[in-house]
UniProtKB/TrEMBL annotation, chains A, B:
Name of the protein this chain belongs to: CoA-binding protein
Assigned keywords, A-Z: ATP-binding, Nucleotide-binding, Tricarboxylic acid cycle
Alphabetical list of Pfam families matching this protein: ATP-grasp_5, CoA_binding_2, Ligase_CoA_2, Succ_CoA_lig
GO terms, biological process: tricarboxylic acid cycle
MF term (GO), any: metal ion binding
PROSITE patterns membership: ATP_GRASP (PS50975)
Family statement drawn from the similarity comment of this UniProt entry: In the N-terminal section; belongs to the acetate CoA ligase alpha subunit family.
Organism, scientific name: Enterovirga aerilata
Domain (ATP-grasp): residue spans on this chain: 42-78
Length: 722, 722
């Protein structure tokens, strides 16, 4: 059969493998079981080319010794019983049997132990297995996550790893590249390279097992859990010593997802509407429907505005209608500013009017213990194909259209960052920070209860929105993590996607659950899947905001060589720490470049990296060294450490740096430059000036500029640009 | 002998133990060796009561079997040779020998291997050792660090731990409490509690080994390295299976340190002088000596000011002198503003004038490749007992005396934080931040090259300075880490000591070395010793500054129960994450308290912790819940999450919170309260107002307020107040 298989074309081989596994699973299902026996596990592994030890099942002690003789000693004996899942616990495993006598005796012992453990257990025999020796024990497995679906896992075997939880995940199916990245993705990855003179593992063989496991669970959604534990990884191969497969025949298939085209078409109408209806528009100051009207008008929106009100003829100078159905023209977006209990009826009218999007500001739904109210509007949305934003949100801003579809204050600093938040409070923090830090935004969107529109819909819209250069999202959960990750993987190739995942810690997750009714997932899974999808993860609210502000204005670096040029040696040390903390590489300075820098700095300055120009230097020393740093193509990014002195005051430094960067840009030398400014309060003005001119700069911080540069690098690496 | 020992008094026993070890070491020294043989190691362990397995040295195969028979099988055989340190590598170790035959054969094998490895090695026999089984393999060791001296180390045994570097250090001698904290101080500490049904280790026995090792290396400074690897830790005991001791008979004793009284007397004269001389005072604007004079005068210093100048009769209205020796009165502090090459001569005159302190602003010493210039002034300082601050510094500020002994701008925001920096650039960042954030300071001190006065001198001064409530230090190295740690351990019991250790990473350490010529130590050692000394470690420059600003204004919490009260559910989730990140504990809400909070919040708000009062609430909901939070003695600290709404605008919230806190303070209910404000830019003013009134508050950040609270808690725990 093996030979016949080799002669088949790969796709036939894959089909044959699937047929083989299907037969096994069908039998298990027919027998009403939910887990595979060891021999069944072996059949499945064989079908998918996952290496397992030689083995056979013996029905008697003599059969066991015959099998053991044929595969060579030592061997392992294991009970085969559909009723005993935890074999070790049942005394159903004996290892290291070195002779026929030991095997015969072991056979009897195991049977006795099994009977003792569970007198009623059906015993199908004792498995005799080639015992694997040496190598590194690792674990390859797969789980089914509520949000991300099938995930493949990899870790080192052994008690210590269980204690340290040193394991890494990827969405299945995993590519070979994903699998290789998993080998480097565990804390103890050095172990795989061989320690204390031990052999390195065969990385290709190990990656192959990971890829095949991930393919297997993707092909068969009913495989809810799979464990190869341990896999013995040696310099020659990777063989799974034990296979455990658990099935869930009731697993529901993933609901069909909308096509990207469908999402983009609807989102474009909603986010860039030609006409907006305000349901619950009001002339009375203090009402939400009044704030929304004012924001639309005062924000400068140029499209049609239709106030909807049961009685009024006119609101704030606009003709009012009793229902959206009375409006003569097409409506793209309906903003709701009415109490929760009235939403369903008004939404149905929107459906009849064929409005593609509803912005549901009202609270009082799932978050307030009224899930049935939310279910009702979700059904209406589905029936009429209305996309729902919210409920329980502040609304949204889309600055290129001067559109403030919100009851919060109007926001008008245009720029290229698109932000969203699940929580209204965080949305307000985004608005305040944006205004304060002069961070231009293209959009700010509240997602609230996410009854329909969620992060991946926004990703699809911002992907094709030329006004957006970076996408920054705050979320507490992802209702469909897989859809998000797939969208992010595609979008992050083009634009940085930055995510602050709240509820990272178990305490945070509990708070999130009480806040939104959504159960937050295991944070390590988010961590790994975000990485797999090219998402840059922000660790704090301030980081989300600073990354959104700084990442889009930095050019993409062309390589990993980072150089620090500093006037303050002390800043150089702290900046070096930050470089390491943020996964960046301090360039190893080539001798000729070192000499070139030396010419510009005093003899007691330090060459190497950081280039320490020392504190008392005039502006031209900064100018000369930074120009050289931009000019030499071996250097890919610059971190500047400025020290406030009388000789080179803050604004002199700032203007000069902008000049040099502009001068070199004109010569085609474009590199990311960030700056840390140490000095008296004048450095704040200088930092703002630098930021306004394309150099993310921070006063009194040696960390923030490097964090922003690090985020740019993380994105560029994930997007395959480095 | 053992019985005789038991009858002795403990101090006699200790003396006898020291005598025993002294005899062993003397013999090793006499023989010109620098390491102990295994039997010598056993003697040393026996003397100090460190448990080791039964063992003996055999000179023949038959002697080996006789020994093995007497101690029981299995046994281990090990070569005994002063010329073979790495026994395993030499094939000089055989384990698990189960019979007399195996032992006899093993004896011959080991001898053959040893000859093969090193034909010239002197073979003293083969050690036969009881083989320890089961338990958890751990490592206890000791090293000699250039800055901290003797350190005791603890970690788990095995390859994986070597890879993960999961090891923890304490200064020796370690107390029992130190030793117990080490058991919890490794990443994989769960291992010691028993996993997968394994037994927990005997923590007392393990701690005992650690304490004894730390005492041994403290008693014998010539023991430069010691390794007990592995120690088998079981539920009953902890036995060291292998002992390795390396000696350094050339080790220099630690130089005598000044008494605290001596340090404080000198530092008080320097920092709070009755008279200051400015050597190199100048009337010419732009000169350093001019800036120093102006800062002294304009800063409002009320003591005597004596300008020293070779020619001038008067400078800025003050009578000038040619030399300090010409000044009629006593001088406490001489500020140097002359080039490096003139310092030595002027310093000698200061010595002759019996001035106790010199503030050496000039650069051009060790940092500029002129170590001999620095050596020269250090010698003069020693000769005349002048304490030297610097050289290569900005000087210092001591605001209670209105003293600005610096060439930087005058600084006048008085407060209770004393800051210092090794680097001038960082000093300027401290000044800028302090002014910008309105952080009141008692002192800002530049330490620069630290030729004499360093961090521990400042600790001694600020300890007894009633104007200082918190001490925050930036350093790149510690010239005498032990003196620092001992001072910090004492001082941190009274006042928080916060340290930003730059050069944490290897890249940072390299930059530090090029910057100051000081070799930065292993960061894990700093981490652990700081903890042992009660030092709160800042992870970034901004953290150092924010901790210095916030920690002194927070009252000390009386317990670990932290409660979050938030208007924004989203902030509650992020604040919960921060609580975990900063080592704080979210209080488990007792049912009666939960009910009490529920009365104040809307039915759809979330009770529990965080208390989510929801966003649309009026001021009284914040007031009621925060008052309850302050009133109930089971709650020890509050974190507030504010959400900007029209109903409760930022300044209304801020004033109200200050009112409630004041009201409860009047009733004796004093607790730390911090706040995170999410909203439009008005929250910045509200945050500043809150901060000014004792509530550290941050706009657009859910991390910073919790970090500050976390720092207060870390300090309180280290000081034994919790």
């Amino acid at each position: 059969m093996a030979e016949a298989a080799l002669k088949r074309a790969p796709e036939d081989y894959a089909a044959a493998a699937r047929d083989e596994v299907r037969r096994v699973l069908d039998r298990v299902k027919a027998e009403g079981r939910t887990s595979l026996t060891a021999p069944e596990g072996k059949l499945v592994c064989d079908a998918y080319g996952i290496p397992v030890p030689k083995e056979g099942v013996a029905g008697s002690a003599s059969e066991a010794t015959r099998l053991a003789d044929s595969m060579g000693y030592p061997v392992v004996l294991k009970i085969v019983s559909p009723d005993i899942l935890h074999k070790t616990e049942a005394g159903g495993v004996l290892v290291g049997l070195r002779s026929a006598e030991e095997v015969a005796k072991g056979y009897d012992t195991i049977l006795a132990n099994a009977k003792n453990y569970n007198a009623g257990a059906r015993i199908e025999g004792v498995q005799v297995q080639q015992m694997l020796k040496g190598g590194t024990e690792v674990i390859v497995g797969a789980i089914t996550d509520g949000s991300f679906g099938k995930l493949v896992a990899f870790g080192l075997g052994g008690v210590l790893v269980e204690v340290l939880k040193d394991i890494t995940f990827r969405m299945a199916p995993a590519t070979r590249q994903d699998a290789m990245s998993m080998l480097d993705g565990i804390q103890a990855h050095e172990m795989l390279k061989g320690v204390r003179g031990g052999d390195p593992v065969d990385r290709e063989a190990l990656a192959d097992v990971i890829v095949k496991v991930s393919q297997l669970v993707s092909d068969f959604p009913e495989i809810s859990e799979l464990d190869l534990n341990p896999v013995f990884a040696t310099k020659a191969d990777a063989i799974a010593a034990d296979v455990r497969i658990v099935l869930d025949f009731d697993a529901k298939p993933r609901p069909a997802v909308r096509s990207n085209e469908e999402i983009v078409t609807a989102m474009n109408r909603i986010m860039r509407p030609k006409a907006v209806a305000v349901i619950g528009a009001s002339a009375e100051a203090g009402k939400i429907g009044n704030s929304v009207m004012k924001n639309l008008i005062n924000g400068g929106y140029k499209g049609q505005i239709y106030p909807i009100h049961p009685k009024a003829d006119e609101i704030l100078g606009y003709k009012a209608y009793k229902s959206v159905k009375d409006v003569p023209g097409v409506i793209d977006t309906a903003v709701f500013a009415i109490p929760a209990k009235f939403v369903a009826a008004a939404l149905t009218e929107c459906g009849e009017k064929q409005i593609p999007g509803a912005v549901l500001i009202p609270s009082g739904f799932a978050e307030a213990g009224e899930p049935q109210l939310q279910d009702e509007i979700v059904e209406i949305g589905k029936k009429y194909n209305i996309r729902l934003m919210g409920p329980n949100i502040y609304g949204f801003y889309y600055t290129p259209e001067n559109l403030c579809a919100t009851f919060c204050t109007a926001y008008d600093v245009k720029g290229s960052a698109a932000l969203s938040s699940q929580s209204g409070g965080i949305g307000m923090a985004i608005i305040g920070f944006s205004r304060s830090a002069k961070m231009g935004v293209s959009a700010i969107v509240g997602l609230g209860n996410k009854s329909d529109i969620d992060e991946d819909d926004l990703l699809a819209f911002f992907e094709q929105d030329d006004n957006t250069k970076v996408i920054a999202q705050h979320c507490e959960d992802l209702k469909d993590g897989r859809a998000f990750a797939e969208a992010a993987k595609r979008v992050s190739k083009k634009k940085p996607v930055i995510v602050l995942k709240a509820g990272r810690t178990s305490a945070g997750a509990r708070a999130a659950a009480s806040h939104t009714g959504a159960l937050a997932g295991n944070d390590k899974i988010y961590e790994d899947v975000f990485k797999q999808a090219g998402v840059v993860r922000a660790r704090s609210l301030r980081q989300l905001l600073e990354f959104a502000r700084g990442v889009p204005i930095l050019p993409t670096p062309k390589g990993e060589n980072v150089l620090i040029i500093t006037g303050a040696g002390g800043s150089g040390v702290l900046l070096s720490d930050s470089v390491v903390d943020n996964g960046l590489s301090l360039m190893q300075m080539p001798p000729d470049l070192d000499e070139a820098f030396k010419k510009f700095i005093p003899p007691f300055g330090a060459s190497g990296n950081p280039v320490d120009i020392t504190g008392g230097e005039p502006p031209r020393t900064y100018q000369n060294t930074v120009r050289l740093g931009l000019e030499d193509d071996r250097i890919h990014a610059l971190i500047l450490g400025y020290w406030h002195t009388i000789v080179t005051p803050p604004m002199v430094f700032a203007r000069l740096m902008v000049e040099v960067v502009e001068e070199m840009k004109a010569k085609g030398k474009v590199k990311p430059v960030v700056a840390s400014l140490a000095g008296d309060i004048e450095v704040e003005e200088a930092s703002q000036y630098l930021y306004d001119h394309g150099i993310p700069a921070y006063a009194y911080s040696t960390e923030l500029p490097v964090e922003v540069l690090g985020a740019k690098y993380k994105w560029a690496r994930g997007a395959g640009l480095l």
